[in-house]
Design a protein that fits this description.
The chain is an all-alpha fold and 424 residues long. It contains 20 helices and two strands. Strands 1-2 form a two-stranded antiparallel sheet.
């Protein structure tokens, strides 16, 4: 157990120190776990959650086709055309990015919506920094609203055997979707306060034209099929992943015939984040290794000692610690590590784990909004601005992100406890 813990700690330190290489660090760590016989060679394939991997890969591919169809740009143009001034345009773009991000990867959402905000700012000779930040943090917030909105949601859904509808209504109670929506309403008030003086008018010269609606049908079909699959009894564990991958393959085959060229296949595959897929696959192996070595049980018992027998104290500790950690480290490896820990804590305390699962998900996902480096979407938005010649200071980012995030997290903290903690 000591050797496994040392390898695991070194892995985490290296992933934090070298974020560009964290997938290769995790892969190396996985190889070491097997080489040291901490995890048997035969346990590699069974330790990887293929449903998560397939869901992520398939969803990324479908989203790439959806973006290429220009449908998101058209929707943004239609929304902006109905807004009276800059203030409401930024609020609308923020809300729009949130809606998109509930079903599309957060980074992809920022790549879609941020250029629209930059164009508007240039026309009005304003700095686009505040509006792009608003779009980025809104996309991170709403990513946790549905099963397919964020990698962490996909991971929790697969681990806790939750289906698409469970994020809306689960075991007779409102799910995470409604918690996030109320958090978004509260946080949007912060956006209103920040931009309250920007009353310049906005005009859209032309609406983006969409010539291919099939990717939109494909994305909508993915959501519908995931909902229908949630009603199937005794379905295979990889059902959701198979659905997403199947529709992705249908999409690239259709586009190849429509464009009369197979160039769409490598172009779309290029948009799939294989780096994240490699990272997750390797982490599944590492986590299974430390689980087999007894590290997970030891961490869980340590949390129980700190939190005592109070479920509320444990829930509070888990959520706010996750907010703090996720402000500085990537939430994907953090959530992957903590899910089995949370399960162990719930088992020690003799309770259902859902309130702790949701506390972990809220803290780890929303906490990434606190800093410019806490979420991939934030890093992407800053990169987009830098390419346009705008440097974002930490203080400038956190002027909006800190009150926005604390408002959203506090709202979620209260609601999750009222819905899922009070009855324990």
């Amino acid at each position: 157990m000591v050797l496994a813990l040392i390898i695991f700690v070194i892995t985490y330190v290296l992933m934090i120190a070298f974020p560009k290489y964290r997938a290769y660090v995790a892969l190396t760590s996985a190889v070491i776990f097997v080489a040291c016989d901490i995890l048997p060679l035969g346990g590699i394939l069974t330790s990887i959650d293929w449903n998560v991997i397939l869901m992520i890969a398939g969803t990324m591919g479908i989203v790439a086709l959806f973006i290429e169809s220009k449908m998101p740009s058209k929707l943004a143009d239609l929304i902006i055309g109905k807004m009276p001034n800059v203030k409401w345009t930024i609020i609308a773009l923020s809300l729009f990015s949130g809606v998109i991000s509930a079903f599309v990867d957060n980074v992809a959402t920022v790549l879609m919506v941020a250029p629209v905000a930059i164009t508007i700012a240039k026309k009005l000779k304003l700095s686009p920094i505040p509006s792009v930040i608003a779009i980025s943090i809104a996309s991170n917030l709403q990513g946790v609203a549905t099963l397919v909105g964020d990698t962490t949601s996909i991971m929790l859904g697969a681990y806790a055997k939750m289906d698409f509808l469970d994020f809306f209504w689960m075991k007779g109670r409102p799910g995470m979707f409604w918690v996030v929506q109320l958090g978004m309403i509260a946080a949007t008030f912060i956006v209103f306060l920040v931009f309250r003086k920007q009353n310049q008018t906005v005009n859209i010269e032309s609406i983006t034209q969409v010539n291919d609606f099939f990717p939109t049908v494909l994305l909508s079909g993915t959501i519908v099929l995931l909902i229908l699959a949630s009603f199937l009894p005794n379905k295979p564990e990889a059902t959701n992943g198979i659905i997403c991958m199947s529709l992705f393959f249908i999409g690239i085959i259709y586009e190849s015939f429509r464009q009369k060229s197979v160039s769409v296949i490598p172009r779309t595959l290029k948009e799939v984040d294989f780096f994240t897929i490699l990272l997750l696959s390797s982490l599944f192996v590492v986590i299974e290794g430390i689980k087999q070595a007894g590290v997970i049980d030891s961490i869980a018992s340590l949390f129980v000692k700190v939190g005592g027998n109070s479920v509320f104290l444990m829930y509070s500790l888990l959520l706010w610690a996750s907010v703090l950690f996720s402000a500085f480290i990537d939430n994907i490896p953090y959530v992957a590590t903590m899910l089995p820990v949370v399960t162990g804590i719930a088992s020690y305390m003799g309770i259902k784990p859902y309130v702790l699962y949701f506390g972990l998900l809220c803290g780890a996902t929303l906490g990434g909004n606190l800093t410019p480096i806490g979420a991939s979407a934030n890093i992407t938005s800053i990169g987009i601005l830098r390419k346009q010649g705008y440097e974002v200071r930490n203080s400038e980012f956190m002027k909006l992100s800190v009150p926005y995030t604390l408002t959203a997290v506090t709202t979620a903290y209260i609601l999750v406890w009222l819905l899922w903690g009070m009855s324990i």
